[in-house]
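Quick one, tokens below. Sequence please?
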């Protein structure tokens, strides 16, 4: 049986390796890591509100407002009026923001393909099972 401390250490190593890779890719893209994560969120949803971005990133509304101002000035995204909230706005990617997200995903996918090939294509199944198991156990903890 595997020692739980070894499982935790291995998982922590994966989390740190992911953070390192994302950090390097964001530097390569010329944006802060939080900004890159925000761009990916907006890309995944098609649009997001600043409040959703703040919740996703775990940042204050003020920090997110400043980040959005910088990304807007850089031509990565735009604010549009929110039809459901006259005081709020929706964030949408501009072509340069789409390019940043596309290049990030391409580079990340390249790294994952290399790791997967080194493990005979087993990584996808292991990661999917891990995610499913963690979500299920997290849900069980609320009961």
């Amino acid at each position: 049986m595997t020692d739980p401390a070894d499982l935790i250490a291995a998982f922590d190593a994966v989390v740190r390796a992911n953070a390192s890779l994302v950090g390097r890719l964001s530097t390569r893209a010329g944006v802060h890591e939080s900004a890159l994560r925000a761009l990916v969120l907006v890309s995944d949803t098609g649009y997001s509100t600043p409040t959703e971005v703040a919740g996703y990133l775990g940042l204050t509304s003020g920090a997110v407002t400043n980040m959005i101002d910088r990304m807007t000035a850089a031509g990565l995204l735009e604010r549009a009026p929110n039809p459901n909230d006259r005081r709020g706005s929706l964030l949408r990617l501009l072509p340069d923001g789409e390019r940043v997200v596309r290049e990030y995903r391409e580079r990340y996918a390249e790294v994952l393909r290399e790791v997967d090939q080194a493990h005979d294509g087993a990584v996808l199944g292991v990661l999917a099972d891990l995610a499913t198991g963690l979500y299920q156990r997290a849900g069980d903890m609320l009961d």
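The longest strand covers residues 85-93. Helices lie at 4-29, 33-45, 50-57, 61-73, 95-118, 123-140.
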